[in-house]
Amino acid sequence: MKRRTLIKTVGAAALGSSLGACSPAWRRFPPGPTASSLPLLRVAPDRVIRTSVGLRPFRPAGFRVAAERLDEKTVIHNYGHGGAGISLSWGTGLLVSELAEPHPSRQAAVIGAGAVGLATARQLQRRGFDVTIHARALPPDTTSNMAYAGFSPLSNLVSAPERTPAFDTQFDRAVRASYEQMQRLAGAGRGVSWMTTYTWTNRLTGRRVEDPGLDETESGLDPGLDVGPTVLQPGEHPFPGTYALRRPTLRIEPSIYLDRLMEEFLLFGGRVRIRDFATPRDLMSLDEPLIANCTGLGSRALFGDETMTPIKGQLTFLAPQPGIDYSLEGSAPGGGRIGILPRSDGIALGHVMERGDWSLEPIEEAIATRLDRAGRLVAAMADHPSGLGGVAAAPRLPAMRAALEHDAVPATPPPVESFYDIES
Predict the structure, then answer these.
(1) Mind listing the pLDDT tens digit for each residue in 223-258?
(2) What are the angstrom distances between the C-alpha of 180 and each of 101, 197, 282, 382?
(3) Other C-beta atoms within 10 Å of 321: how many?
(4) Nearest alpha carbon to residue 275 among 84, 74, 133, 77
(5) Which is nearest to 325 in space by CA: 38, 34, 35, 37?
(6) Are the C-beta atoms of 330 and 338 separated by less than 8 Å?
(7) CA 124 to CA 118: how far, in whole Å?
(8) Considering the entire predicted model, what is its pTM?
(9) Which H or E element spans position 171?
């Protein structure tokens, strides 16, 4: 199938002069870290190391996991995860393996080598299938490699009018299976780890209300914002809201995670073939009678699912900075959503969400906007009267001291519902 590659990466040099030569007011770097403070992020155009672009495979009705006959082949579809592909991959892969279990053959093909394809292949292997992956691109050249990749099982997943009870049942099974699997992977050098995330709000509520336009694919599923986080009261945090929420979250680093997953797949006897498919008839050339379709947006052309549409995402990465081991999610002072996620390969600034945009060219205006929002946020944190940049060296309040403690692994993992509001 001749379809476009869904990712593109550009170096910092390609940014040109669009970011401007003048240093904005927020470029000043905060004081260095102390034993009890959260170090503040350094934000400046000359710290940008790259920008990546990917297309989320959005399907209004949510992901599709279903089997159909195609001549003598059985095809099990597993696509349409929006921005939740990595988060749900182990769960929907489990659903695929359960549909495959009654098949008389133990020979299976997986089409696609992103996070969904690799997790599906591993789930099939766990049930004794001999699996071959057929894909046009392999990591690090897959859309999954471009993901923000917080554990975000509802991110751009489903539109409320398209929801069905059957989907809700599948989702509940998939998200809980994926969450359990990701917990097992955390801390084992496989690109999955626990970290502390801070969000902020002016009202404590069970629903996010600060930016009603954020949930572009509002699902109506209970986000459970009142479950799991520690609430920091006014004066106990430096963030631009009345209250702040502190919670442990799961971070997936695609450059590590996908490579490890591929290594495990090969270790357990898996094979990889580089090839493309233009039509369903091309699948008839495969030797395997059982096929798992994990082609994401490719399912629009390959299987005629016209409901599939891209939601363009773009991440701008700052150079890694020692001590930045917490993530931030919320509205910057003056407006605009910003996500900041530190990883070993850089500090990601998100989130860009352009529905229906097939272009893989970076949006230079979005690069400058994310830098501006991150800079305004960091400047506000540094200047806050209760802020970590000013008084955190000797915090007076027990709640603030607790907010500065970072456990690598939470003593009690939060319920999966506490991840429902996270964007990816």
Answers:
(1) 443 446 788 888 888 899 888 888 899 999 999 999
(2) 21, 20, 36, 37
(3) 17
(4) 133
(5) 38
(6) yes
(7) 10
(8) 0.86
(9) helix 165-185
